[in-house]
Amino acid sequence: MSAPTVVILAAGEGTRMRSRTPKVLHPLCGRPLILWPVLAALEAGAAKVVVVDNPTRRLAEVLPEGVEVAVQAEPRGTGDAVRAAAEHVDPGAPVVVLMGDVPLIAPATIAALVDAHDGAGATVATMELDDPAGYGRVVRASDGSVARIVETKVAGDATPDELALREVNTGVYAFDGGALLEALERVEPANAQGEYYLPDALPVLRAGGREVRAHLVEDAALTLGVNDRVDLAAIRALAQGRIHAAHARAGVTVVDPGSTLIDAGVRIGQDTTIEPSSFLRGETTVGEGCVVGPLTTLVDTRLGDGVTVPHSYLVEAQVADGASVGPFAYLRPGAELAERAKAGTFVEIKNSRIGAETKVPHLSYIGDADVGPQTNIGAGNITANYDGRRKHRTTIGANVRTSSNTVFVAPVTVGDRAYTGAGSTITEDVPPGALGIARARQVNRPGYAERREAGAADPPTGVRAERGD
Ligand code: UD1
Ligand code: CA
């Protein structure tokens, strides 16, 4: 059998979402809704995938290369939307129609539908729901084939008997390409919404002598539609459960799935543990044998193998094998930790490379810096990278030891094996192997306390100002 063309309907605005964002661009586990059926169709081996968009063409930028876009001029119904893609339909091949708002459709479900279709005029994927509200109901003929589908989105199309039917149209179909195009020519907008309904092509096909089959999908979760944000939340929970289960089966421990979010695009290596209340978002990649969390967020971040990250927030950061981050670290875009490096407690790093086995253990801000290997950054070090107009880089070599509270006023370079004195504000380069020390000398005044008690001493610096005299 020839591979199907898959047409995905997504031209509607989704008014029931009450949103300025088009419904199919709302994210579901980090991926726009429309991408879910598109990726499922590609994985199911579609010969061609066509997405029907409206004239604003807002979907093209999120679609993978090679996916075609057809434009429906006006939102005149799902039947009209399929017609907008007519030029892509091969009359000699099956056409699968998917809905842009039915995201959990699985590649295997599409393949099973195409198998069941096997030369019929149309095959409708159906599901049975305890609460079928909002879906089109499937009216079966006495021979078990599909007589028609009645819409229920607005009152007026369905009778009370039809409303009581629990078998519904999933919005997923296989058609004979040529027969579909002919049937759509005869569909009339004679219904409560005044729209061209795609399901109305089914009775036309029957009248033309073609068989219309129902293919019952056992796992209804696969074909639930998102019409409003209540649906979206319910489907998100299902999608998230599937993502967790797939990782668990692949050897990842998700300690508390209920408090853990893992987006669809996230990859995690074997024997990694995701501790509770952790959020792995976007295109994050985690290696093997890591411990992430508790209470850690990774956004578009890459972790190597054997990395630990408790209680931290990382965005567009890269952390190599054996490195450790946190607790309470903030790694911002362009933070790169080499092998076995450490970013410790209350440390913020941005757009900086931290060399192998280098440690930034406590209370530091490292921005726009290159730090060599096996260096130790003392507590409370700051790279002063901004002069009020521009950002400048700080370069710190290998095997450097900086003392507590060193400020590096960039641009500045500290050579290999150099040291800095505690409390130094380093404004000039420190040569390799040198000690850079830059602070006011301490003055001790002996006998000060006694003179003060006798009323003779000058007040200590600062006391005068505090008193306001
Ligand atoms: C549709 C089906 C219904 C089925 C349900 C399954 C019709 C008339 N009804 O109802 O039988 O139970 O899906 O989820 O087909 N769209 C366009 N252009 C349009 C109208 C819609 O591209 O002119 C797109 C929408 O963007 C959406 C999809 O088609 O992705 C479905 O439209 P929607 O209005 O949500 O249809 P439902 O009322 O859910
Ligand atoms: Ca819908």
Which key terms come to mind for this protein?
Spore Coat Polysaccharide Biosynthesis Protein SpsA, Chain A; alpha/beta; 7-stranded mixed β-sheet; 469 residues; 28% strand; 9-stranded parallel β-sheet; binds uridine-diphosphate-N-acetylglucosamine; elongated; UDP N-Acetylglucosamine Acyltransferase, domain 1; binds calcium ion; 17% helix; 9 helices
How would you characterize the overall build of this protein?
The C terminus is likely disordered. The chain has 2 domains: 219 residues, Spore Coat Polysaccharide Biosynthesis Protein SpsA, Chain A; 185 residues, UDP N-Acetylglucosamine Acyltransferase, domain 1 (3 Solenoid). Helix 5 crosses helix 6. The longest helix has 21 residues. The radius of gyration is 32 Å and the shape is elongated. Strand 8 and strand 9 form a beta hairpin. By secondary structure, the protein is an alpha/beta fold. Helices cover 17% and strands 28% of the residues. Bound molecules: uridine-diphosphate-N-acetylglucosamine and calcium ion.
